[in-house]
């Protein structure tokens, strides 16, 4: 997968998967933002800088697993990793296409864990400086998250630090609008990204990317057409 495809995949997964993030982390979002001193709303950016930094560190560690010396992995590993990478991206597409009640449910399943973490976060409050906000964000980014781990699994398959960095940064940026907003802004944004046509378009784009990655060599051989060659090259 090239860097451009990694960016697009991460951004779509973060943007359209962020309703899951809200379901899981809504309580933490409320707790952290409520502790920001009046007139210092910019400190909220620190939460997300820290959170995305944690994501990036986890992703790069995972990438190292995918970069094991060739002698340490079976000869067929590259093809298996291609299939696995394509399959994971198709699963992201399925998740994005799910009705909102199912996506919200996946976030709610993790809500008890986030409630247990509230006392830990409370020890670092109130938010008095950018350093403090970034530190809280780093802690927030270490919370278990199924969507993040899906992206991290993709990072293992990529085995490319540059593509991994692009994907995870784009994923983190994609989650920010919904988690950074509040009140009416959050509701309006959530309503916008939940429009079926928009979600299905994003899901179709991701699913096509996954299929092209998994079966690209076979498709380019079976369908000898310039457009197919072009599409396969776009994700290579």
UniProtKB/TrEMBL annotation:
Q: Which parts pass through the membrane?
A: 6-32, 52-74, 80-98, 133-159, 165-186, 198-219
Keyword hit for Transmembrane: yes
Keywords for this protein:
Membrane, Transmembrane, Transmembrane helix
- Urease accessory protein UreH-like transmembrane domain residues: 10-211
Q: Which domain of life is it from?
A: Bacteria
Q: Name the PANTHER family for this protein.
A: HEAVY METAL TRANSPORTER, HEAVY METAL TRANSPORTER-RELATED
For this entry, the protein name equals Sulfite exporter TauE/SafE family protein
- Organism equals Wenzhouxiangella sediminis
